[in-house]
Amino acid sequence: MNVLKRLEPDELRIVYKEHIREDFPRGERRPLFAMEKMRKAGRYDCYGYYRDDKLIAYACYILPQSGSYALLDYFAVVPELRGQGIGGEFLRSLKGTVSAKSGVFIEAESPDSAKSEDERQIRERRIRFYLSNGAKRTNSRCLLFGVDYNILLISTDGVPNTQEKTEQHHAVEELYRELYGRVYGHLCIPYENNAKQDAR
């Protein structure tokens, strides 16, 4: 039986050193001290998914003060167990655990900016994973540190979000302004997505 557990500070350090550093390239890794600082301030939360006391997946969220949305910072299944449905099971089990009233935004790398067909397929597959597990597309995209992201939204309580897409877009902008402050305009630029929205 798989068990969902909120990570304590020492457990987060272990997950960071043994998994996050292996699963994510340096440019996508938030410093551990920054995660710990936000966690102490009540603005960061992490969960582990365990089988027989062994970590099989993990997720970390940023919890902005100004809004009712959270931002999924990390989500991964341990490499040797990927492709077995654990990711979807874990994502569904997380609903209701995050203290965000309206939902969780997800940054998914845009297939449109992929540099190869293989990369495009990987990005499309990742988006399909989130869509198949309850996420919805928003009208927002974001250019963050030079990476083009589609912004998805998943409900935290299983009830579909009813806010207009323009309201969701304003919430995305508000979230990034809070996270990046004065350098917001240089590091992260949310912009409307005029591309066709579909349910691929």
Short summary of the structure?
34% of the residues lie in helices and 30% in strands.
* Amino-to-carboxy terminus distance: 31 Å
Write down the secondary-structure element order.
Answer: EHHEEEHEHEEHHE
Q: Spans of 5+ residues with little confidence (pLDDT < 50)?
A: 194-200
Q: Which band does the percent of strand residues land in?
A: 25-35%
Give me the Rg, rounded: 16 Å
User: Which of globular, elongated, flat, extended, rod-shaped describes the shape?
Assistant: globular
Number of helices: 6
Q: What about the largest sheet? A: 8 strands, mixed
Beta strand count? 8
Widest sheet, order of strands = 1-2-3-4-5-7-6-8
Mean pLDDT equals: 88
Structural class: alpha+beta
Q: What portion of residues is helical?
A: 25-40%
Descriptive notes:
This protein is α+β, with helices and mostly antiparallel strands. The chain starts with a strand and ends in an 8-residue tail after the last strand. Strand 6 and strand 7 form a beta hairpin. It is globular. 34% of the residues lie in helices and 30% in strands. An eight-stranded mixed sheet has the order 1-2-3-4-5-7-6-8, with helices on both faces.
From the structure above, extract its key features:
200 residues; alpha+beta; 8-stranded mixed beta sheet; 6 helices; disordered C terminus
Could you give the topology of this structure?
Layout lengths: L1 E5 L2 H15 L8 H9 L3 E8 L2 E9 L6 E9 L8 H9 L8 E7 L7 H16 L3 E9 L2 E8 L10 H16 L3 H4 E5 L8
Parallel strand pairs: 4-5
Antiparallel strand pairs: 1-2, 2-3, 3-4, 5-7, 6-7, 6-8
